[in-house]
């Protein structure tokens, strides 16, 4: 019937002519109705072949005509019903791909006008009426038409980028329906509708193609809309795929048809959204075996390269690998890769702690999923991994890495030799370790997706377990007690006949008497075997040292030696703190002798690392004590200059020298207590200036510590394996530097310190690097600015470049932060010294030890 | 200062005083007016009026060794002199005359091994003593004699004291810690025939203290035992069964006492707490109350015969008195300079002549007169 195409063409042309020329509303409506009949005619009025012809060749032209005549006068003449029935329906009933393309073109080309509004209205109708699903379903039907790849590409990019296109055109006038938050969930819903129709068609034995839909999904994911899409898609799909095999096949096909370049987005998006390994398995199928890219993403990228994902994702991902016999080898492969990373020294040293935690978690989950036979099969490799990995982790100076190593090592050894000997460490059970240990027992694989649960089962309070009831039953006995007590309360007076005696003297039983003299204290500490006496002596040491500085100076070195070697034989409470305070006050009291002793002992033979760390801590704390301004209690009437060394605070022990209280003070206090002031402002705290006690002795603390660092001893190799001490040393030097602010010797100290840290600034241990960065900021804070630029300008320039480097590239987050701060400090100093030549001391800066 | 009147409001009693502020004005005083009226909460006022601590009535020295155990024998003092038996660590049992406050005689029967426990059998002429030479000796003290008439081998090397129960017809039951570390033997005296051996199934450790008890209703005597693991158990002697067990301490039970009238007992351990427990109709034990102490360690405790006060001997050198009804702390007596090992109340016929004695490691025995006025 060759008259068909001709008739259609004639009708369409006539229609367009009428619409473009006619001014009569009845003619216009008649023309629109004619055109509409080709789309939604009820009977065989236009024959089917004519309708097809219309849709194929004339529809786009008609639409283009309509959209180019959005401001036509007759549009205003139509009643709202006519507008909807005749005009809008022309857009909603035709092939949706053509409509979408024409509308978007129109929106793009149209200027802001009522016409644009009209086209947007139509587009909104288009989205609301589910035309997208019709579009997607149309692409699923049958084999893809070979002739129009460009058309498909255009359609694909417009569909995915619709919010962007509209936002580009409309700027801030874009409508809510076109915003990504609304559009992508809508798209996902329409996609699932299309998939549902696909399933139906498959059941009816019709072939379908998921190519376009998969491309759409992939492209949306790769453009960063995976979260919105999967947020809608995944719950539906996982509920549907649970039992229905056709759905499963459709999902697998969908994932497999995603083009290679977009595979990663889809897979990682899915893995992140899906809850539980069973659901993941029914959604992904065996794509990991069929698609190289998917395999790479799942077995490598998500596990070894990225570490931002949450633990449940790891669990479902690894559980997915473990579920199927075909995928099991991949689990082993992943386990080996994880083992390799976990036991690699370089990874432990250079990768951020978060990544190490992530890898440890993955490793533990893998271990939990492994079967006993598989463990036996790969025992050798696991053992090797455990041995080398344990060593790397235990060598690290970061406690968290230690703990990670211990937890994983313990679990590995327990898995390798379930009955036999196993590693056992002592560590605190904090939330992190508990979480890690809990990962060993895999979660139930067949989790019910939440949709299938009855909704109110979640809100109901959990039923009372019999045990809790039993507990309440137990509590019944004490519960009866208050009543009984109450009844006996009524007898209060009868019991009151027994008048209590004065019981105020019932105090804690004091043990041995505290020593009164520093020599007694020393003797007790060296030779006593009585725990109480040692304890009391240790507690009294600090007070004794401060009370009589002259006597202390006679025995200071001996006492500090005893304290340094003192062991906690009796498990004294607060032993470390007491010992440290005593040593600090000794250092403060007799600075020259004690620092001389401590700094030489720091580098001598036969000390444990703990003792060396103690020395450093004592030096730092003593420096802090010395640098603090003394309490202004040193009586102003006595005009003697404050001695170089004096008790840190005379205020703290007023009762010790109550008799020595100056009469003047007593009188002043009385007058003060009897005086009433009106309109008294803020209390005047006239902080009187006093010379720093640390400035003259700073060198004694500082330079001996710097002198011997590169001479390794048999038991102590600072630049080698003892990097924990090195880190502490650098940090302590930084602290000393900081407290030496305003001291004349500060510049020399800063120079020496910079020289020293320069050699170790790229140390592999983050603790050392943190120490170095801290030391550098201390130098920046303490050395007077003008001196710095006179004498240290080269170093500063180098340091600036290096700091920038560290702030960007260091794997340790603390290092990066410290470097940024130092950099800021440096910039500030630079700016200040360029702006005003009179630099200020950094007195206001707070520093934490 | 005069008590002007007292009133009570907000559930609190107040007393209004007239005249100058009292000399013990430690608490905040509220001036009613300028005429010298003062109001203070009644309880505070009572606390401020608390009695000063008493001193010991007298002290006996001369045992020459730490005093381990004390036993009064003061009945019929019209005819006889009041006596106190003390057992000390050098193996001697001293017999003190409380009228002259001097030693009547010293009994040396344990070969220098520490005496753990002494008790009279019915009259002052028959004494039983337990020593760490693994023997329990029976003494005849009548008419100035001091002879060991009989002895039993206990085979127990622990520090657990025996317990004696008087049964009618000149028979006694003696509970002795057994040779097997966990067991308790019960013997019939004077025949020395074994009645039963009680050994718990669970591992409770050694028995630390024993107390035999004859309930009024039942014919079968019962035994209280405190064990090393901190639990207190009640045994039925005729059925040889454990009636009830209560884990009331985390540390070994050092001493326990039981008040048959209220079916309520008390136990002390090396912890910082004294616990009291009750026995209900189903013969099961329940923890009732607990008193926190300042210093840990109770070596001995004892309820007075009139069941009004409880005395404890503490490792902190102090004797504590508590009201037995509610375990209300009443007094902390300080005299001794070393661990107090035992306390005992005298059995004077006249209540207000009753004394409390405490023996300590510092080799002294102190005597106190407390809460004797009704």
UniProtKB/TrEMBL annotation, chain A:
<dbReference type="GO" id="GO:0016020">
    <property type="term" value="C:membrane"/>
</dbReference>
<dbReference type="InterPro" id="IPR019337">
    <property type="entry name" value="Telomere_length_regulation_dom"/>
</dbReference>
<feature type="compositionally biased region" description="Pro residues">
    <location>
        <begin position="441"/>
        <end position="453"/>
    </location>
</feature>
<feature type="compositionally biased region" description="Acidic residues">
    <location>
        <begin position="490"/>
        <end position="499"/>
    </location>
</feature>
<keyword id="KW-0472">Membrane</keyword>
<dbReference type="InterPro" id="IPR016024">
    <property type="entry name" value="ARM-type_fold"/>
</dbReference>
<dbReference type="Pfam" id="PF10193">
    <property type="entry name" value="Telomere_reg-2"/>
</dbReference>
<dbReference type="GO" id="GO:0005634">
    <property type="term" value="C:nucleus"/>
</dbReference>
<feature type="region of interest" description="Disordered">
    <location>
        <begin position="440"/>
        <end position="507"/>
    </location>
</feature>
<comment type="similarity">
    <text>Belongs to the TEL2 family.</text>
</comment>
<dbReference type="InterPro" id="IPR038528">
    <property type="entry name" value="TEL2_C_sf"/>
</dbReference>
<dbReference type="GO" id="GO:0051879">
    <property type="term" value="F:Hsp90 protein binding"/>
</dbReference>
<dbReference type="Pfam" id="PF25320">
    <property type="entry name" value="TELO2_ARM"/>
</dbReference>
<feature type="domain" description="TELO2 ARM repeat">
    <location>
        <begin position="328"/>
        <end position="418"/>
    </location>
</feature>
<keyword id="KW-0539">Nucleus</keyword>
<feature type="compositionally biased region" description="Basic and acidic residues">
    <location>
        <begin position="457"/>
        <end position="474"/>
    </location>
</feature>
<dbReference type="InterPro" id="IPR051970">
    <property type="entry name" value="TEL2_Regulation"/>
</dbReference>
<keyword id="KW-0963">Cytoplasm</keyword>
<dbReference type="GO" id="GO:0051083">
    <property type="term" value="P:'de novo' cotranslational protein folding"/>
</dbReference>
<dbReference type="GO" id="GO:0042162">
    <property type="term" value="F:telomeric DNA binding"/>
</dbReference>
<dbReference type="InterPro" id="IPR057348">
    <property type="entry name" value="TELO2_ARM"/>
</dbReference>
<protein>
    <recommendedName>
        <fullName>Telomere length regulation protein TEL2 homolog</fullName>
    </recommendedName>
</protein>
UniProtKB/TrEMBL annotation, chain B:
<feature type="repeat" description="WD">
    <location>
        <begin position="80"/>
        <end position="106"/>
    </location>
</feature>
<feature type="repeat" description="WD">
    <location>
        <begin position="246"/>
        <end position="287"/>
    </location>
</feature>
<dbReference type="Pfam" id="PF00400">
    <property type="entry name" value="WD40"/>
</dbReference>
<keyword id="KW-0677">Repeat</keyword>
<protein>
    <submittedName>
        <fullName>Guanine nucleotide-binding protein subunit beta-like protein 1 isoform X1</fullName>
    </submittedName>
</protein>
<feature type="repeat" description="WD">
    <location>
        <begin position="333"/>
        <end position="374"/>
    </location>
</feature>
<dbReference type="InterPro" id="IPR036322">
    <property type="entry name" value="WD40_repeat_dom_sf"/>
</dbReference>
<dbReference type="InterPro" id="IPR001680">
    <property type="entry name" value="WD40_rpt"/>
</dbReference>
<dbReference type="InterPro" id="IPR015943">
    <property type="entry name" value="WD40/YVTN_repeat-like_dom_sf"/>
</dbReference>
<keyword id="KW-0853">WD repeat</keyword>
